[in-house]
Amino acid sequence: MFTKQGPTVRELAVQALSSTERGYDLLAPKFDETPYRTPDRVLDAVTRAVRELGPFDTGLDVCCGTGAGVGVLRQLCRERAVGVDFSAGMLAEARGAFPPGSEGPAVHWVRADARSLPFAPAFDLALSFGAFGHFLPAERFGLFAEVYGSLRPGGQFVFPLGAPPPVGSRAYWSLFGFDAAMRVRNALWRPRFVMYYRTFRLGDVLEDLTQAGFVVRLLPLTELGLRPDGSPRARLVVATREGRGVGGS
Questions:
Q1: What is the 3-state secondary structure (H, E, C) of 151-169?
Q2: What is the pLDDT of residues 83-141, one digit of tens each?
Q3: Distance, CA of 113 to CA of 134 (rounded, Å)
Q4: 56, 82, 112, 239: which sits with the fewest CB atoms below 10 Å from its CB?
């Protein structure tokens, strides 16, 4: 699963026994050499789909990590892209990937907890990749409400969401086993490391987005493949803060 440049077993063990924030600070220098980084094909598919929803002036990458989503925003936004994350280590890697003076819209980095975003309604577009497993179900509505409050009227919050694996499949049992192991770890060890794969279910997500004030639609990301029944393996969730748009969105 990991390249030779990725973390060692010992490093992963230390990270897994740390808090979520400290674990990512430790993992940051080698994060992009792990399978946890969002694959380029997902980033590219989302970029193409979201481009059709624009144009956009300003964009926010929620839980930006090492900056993969900011790379998407720099292709979609005309003026400014902002990455926010609570891990100082991940932000340091992101800054290195997008040094000052790089071509494209201005890039800014903010260290903050996504459950308490420090922004006025300033963004036309918000997105996030691979971060939602770090929030417990009870925190999800609050997270969505924070994103809602950071968007201008007409702004859109987008993220890809994969279809769940078939019950009984190898992928199903792998995710089930991972989540079970994390629950045991968090019951027996402090500080907690919050990361679960099976707590972000589509029906619950749509309900929480709607309660936060969004109007939601789903777009198929067909280039990421189809399931045996013909349904897409992944969809793009498009949650809109209704009102008169800014920047053409």
A1: EEEEEEEEEEEECCCCCCC
A2: 999 999 999 999 999 887 777 899 999 999 999 999 999 999 999 999 999 999 999 99
A3: 12
A4: 112
pLDDT range class, residue 2, cuts 50, 70, 90 = low
Indicate the pTM of the whole model.
0.92
- H helical segments located in 58-200: 68-76, 88-97, 137-150, 170-188
Query: Does some domain include residue 177?
Result: no
CA dihedral (193, 198, 200, 201) in degrees, to 10, reads -170
Residue at 19 is within a domain: yes
> Strand, helix or coil at 6?
coil
Which CATH number characterizes residue 72's domain?
3.40.50.150
Range of the domain at 132: 39-164+201-240
